[in-house]
Write a structure and sequence with these properties.
The complex is a heterodimer of chains A (373) and B (392). Chain A has 373 residues and is of the alpha+beta class. Chain A is built from seven helices and 28 strands. In chain A, helix 1 packs antiparallel against helix 2. Chain B has 392 residues and is of the alpha+beta class. In chain B, a hairpin with a 2-residue loop joins strand 5 and strand 6. The chains are: A alpha+beta (373), B alpha+beta (392). The interface between A and B is medium-sized, with 23 and 15 residues. Strand 28 of chain A pairs antiparallel with strand 13 of chain B, so a sheet runs across the interface.
Chain lengths: 373, 392
């Protein structure tokens, strides 16, 4: 069987599919991508049993055939081929002969493939419970929370992003139990995931890479979710377990509130945190009536302090320790001029949001400091 | 050098009340004519002849020796004597590691020039203790902690055993494996099943096999069995590792309300003592014993230190609920409930820690305040001060 296809198109699709393949697959067959060739297109499938990618690409072929081969090897060789179409010839024993149509390469490349018979079947998600998303919006909803998700595997529910609908609103939430970020947007469709679902980080990264412009389709069924973005479908298992009650930890009543100049605050923070130390990046913030005093001290490094003018609305001064890295990661997602910081106490959550938009909220838990009285 | 007081609690009682000397004395809970339900804390050597051991149910001890003298423990008195003894140790070296109320390691390497050879120092310490308190101690001397501890056990009471340098391995080779620090009942079972009964048998095993059986501990056990122990005497070590209380019910119970009430009282007491010692805890644990003496424990570690009654109680209550839920098929009543805190630090050494959003750590100021007022009242008026829910 002979296929003719633009090498860059094929390369791009193979890379998309191959990226979900685990570096140490349990089943050696899953180290390969599966190719289902019909007369006018190729379906490329790859999976690590947790997440599967199906991507479609136009191609001209003289017959139908299915086979598998090592996607990494194939993409490596395609990368080094001259621009233009390639001719791929697959024989009965699944030997894949690749050559450039231009005839510039004198010689031959033969990649060993296998039959696709035993490759697991990937079931497409039904069209029930679908939502049409603007890709730009979805990308933003991921970007603004993903850094807050946990990468250690102590609590699996934190190794993903929580999607939940509430009437005509949908939220994405991520947390590592020390901080939490949430974005809420209005949607038109009536998808109902009121219970919420947790999509694994690996899946989120794959989706994020694909998101660009236009619409995409998101659907949920049983313990699976599916994203259809352009010519690619990503089908993923969901993380089992109950995402903690995040609403409960987002403070509603505050002891004190202030608006700071976002840019000045970030600059001060960036300077001060040079004198803090990983992994806690502890800085001390003292909020008083007219001042925010930021201080970082590390015995073997030195110390830093800065003052920022603020107007604190509240009864009492509050001093708290907090991870500066957490603030940086959250606040960089806020693009308004004024940043609203809301306080509930020395040992309770601090909230960061835009001064005029509450669609994005970051909550950070302080570091317990010594002068707690 | 390892110093261990001989039958400490009962010896203190005998020293305070000379009439008790030479008699079987048992310190523990009220035997209540053989119906008592607590346990033995300590037994004098005379009582041990009847087969009475510490941690044995008091009712069993009563059966073994109904004419024994049963005394309720006076922890305060023992603590006072203990500090006096520790002071004596510090006269001879600053490197004293107290590991329990009546036991300590001393490193006398640096004080030999001042006070003589280690056996000479040991004799002086023994006579100092006797003069000051009328009590006897057993001392083991060697080049490392493990051998010293084993040696102090060999000639109890009033013993003094020296293991000469270089003899460590031979010294312990013929002893039963149970003498090794870290080999408890469970490990003994594993070894016995393999036909291993003496220390020398462990010493001749391969490190790899031990590692397979016990993980990292296996390597440590091999070293100890070969007389090797590089641990230093740590004078900063704070022996108080946990604070806990237990209640044995007068009648076995299956009422959750009763358990809950006892737990509340236990935690009230534990957290009060915790704050009194100016400490905070990271780990909380509970213990349940069923009527057949099967015992179940649960523990939980916060990622912060706390001394708050509410925080500790609510976590313990949660564990109690989980434990009861997971055992709802067990049709045995409960005879004992215990709870406590461990992983303690002095508040002044308090580590700064990142707080958690989802664990309720609101070491709230109001609560901390109510705890401290309660403590104040309790210190002034004693146990008459009770929380409303504890009123009968």
């Amino acid at each position: 069987m002979i296929i003719e296809i633009d090498k860059d198109h094929l390369l791009k699709s193979v890379i998309i599919a191959d990226s979900v393949i685990s570096s140490k697959p349990v089943n050696p067959l899953l180290a390969n991508c599966c190719f289902n060739v019909t007369e006018n297109n190729i379906e490329i499938i790859a999976t690590d049993n947790e997440i599967a990618v199906k991507t479609y690409i136009d191609a001209i072929s003289d017959s139908k055939k299915s086979f598998t081969c090592n996607g990494k090897r194939l993409s490596q060789i395609l990368k080094e081929f001259p621009v233009g179409n390639v001719i791929i010839d697959i024989n009965e024993s699944n030997i894949i002969k690749i050559n450039s149509k231009s005839g510039k390469i004198k010689g031959s490349y033969k990649l060993i493939g296998t039959s696709a018979e035993e490759f697991p079947e990937i079931i497409s998600v039904s069209s029930k419970n679908m939502i049409e998303f603007d890709q730009v919006v979805l990308k933003e909803m991921i970007k603004k929370v993903i850094y807050a998700a946990s990468t250690d595997s102590i609590k699996p529910v934190f190794n993903g992003i929580f999607f939940k609908t509430d009437g005509n609103k949908i939220s994405t939430v991520a947390s590592d139990s020390r901080r939490l970020s949430i974005v809420t947007k209005e949607i038109e469709n009536n998808i109902k995931i009121d219970e919420g679902i947790i999509i694994p980080l690996k899946t989120i990264h794959e989706i994020y890479k694909l998101l660009n412009a236009g619409k995409c389709i998101f659907s949920v069924q049983d313990k699976q979710c599916c994203f259809k973005i352009g010519d690619t479908e990503i089908i993923s298992r969901l993380i089992d377990g109950q995402f903690p009650n995040y609403k409960q930890v987002i403070p509603k009543d505050f002891k004190a509130e202030c608006i700071v100049d976002n840019k000045l605050f970030m600059e001060s923070l960036r300077r001060a945190m040079i004198f803090s130390k990983e992994p806690t990046y502890k800085i001390i913030c003292k909020f008083t009536k007219n001042n925010l005093h930021i201080e970082a001290k590390t015995p073997e490094l030195g110390e830093a302090e800065e003052y920022i003018d603020i107007e604190l609305k509240g009864e009492e001064d509050i001093t708290l320790g907090i991870n500066a890295q957490y603030i940086m990661e959250s606040v960089k997602e806020i693009d308004s001029l004024g940043l609203k910081i809301s306080l509930t106490g020395q040992m309770s959550p601090v909230t960061f949001m835009s001064e005029n938009d509450s669609s994005y909220i970051a909550v950070i838990m302080p570091i317990q400091i010594k002068n707690a009285d | 050098m390892h110093i261990d007081m001989d039958a400490f609690f009962t010896s203190v009682e005998q020293a305070d009340n000379p009439q008790l000397k030479g008699k079987p004395v048992i310190v523990g809970s009220d035997p209540d004519n053989g119906n008592g339900r607590g346990v033995v804390s300590a037994a004098s050597y005379e009582a041990r002849k009847y087969g009475i051991k510490s941690a044995m149910p008091i009712s069993k001890a009563y059966k073994l020796c109904p004419n024994g003298i049963f005394i309720r423990p006076r922890m305060h008195r023992y603590g006072g004597i203990s500090s006096r003894i520790m002071e004596i140790f510090r006269k001879y070296t600053p490197l004293v590691e107290q590991i329990s109320v009546d036991e300590a390691f001393l490193d006398c390497t640096g004080s030999c020039a001042l006070f003589g050879t280690p056996p000479e120092i040991a004799k002086k310490i023994k006579s100092d203790i006797y003069e000051s308190t009328g009590l006897t101690a057993s001392i083991g001397i060697s080049g490392n902690k493990s051998i010293s501890k084993i040696a102090s056990e060999l000639q109890k009471p009033d013993g003094l055993v020296l293991c000469p340098p270089g003899e460590e391995k031979n010294f312990i080779s013929m002893l039963p494996i149970g003498v090794i620090w870290g080999i408890g009942k469970n490990s003994q079972k594993i070894f016995h099943n393999l036909g291993i009964n003496k220390v020398k048998d462990i010493a001749s095993m391969s490190v790899k096999d031990l590692e397979k059986l016990f993980g990292k501990t296996g390597i440590h056990l091999w070293q100890l069995a070969n007389g090797i122990d590089s641990r230093k005497v740590n004078s900063d070590f704070d022996y108080q590792k946990s604070i806990s209380r237990e209640v044995t019910f007068n009648r076995d119970t299956d009422s959750f309300e009763t358990l809950k009430k006892s737990l509340f009282e236990i935690i009230d007491n534990v957290s009060h003592n915790l704050r009194k010692s100016d400490m905070s805890a990271k780990t909380v644990f509970i213990k349940l014993r069923r009527s057949d003496f099967s015992t179940f424990t649960r523990s939980y570690s916060f990622n912060f230190h706390t001394d708050s009654n509410t925080v500790i109680y609510s976590e313990c209550l949660k564990m109690l609920l989980q434990l009861m839920e997971s055992q709802k098929d067990i049709d045995l009543k409960i005879r004992l409930i215990g709870a406590g805190v461990s992983n303690l630090i002095l508040n002044e050494n308090f580590e700064e820690s990142q707080l958690d959003l989802f664990t309720n750590c609101s070491a709230d100021k109001i609560e901390a305040k109510s705890d401290s007022i309660y403590d104040l009242l309790k210190n002034k008026y004693g146990n008459k001060v009770k929380k409303a829910s504890m009123l009968e």
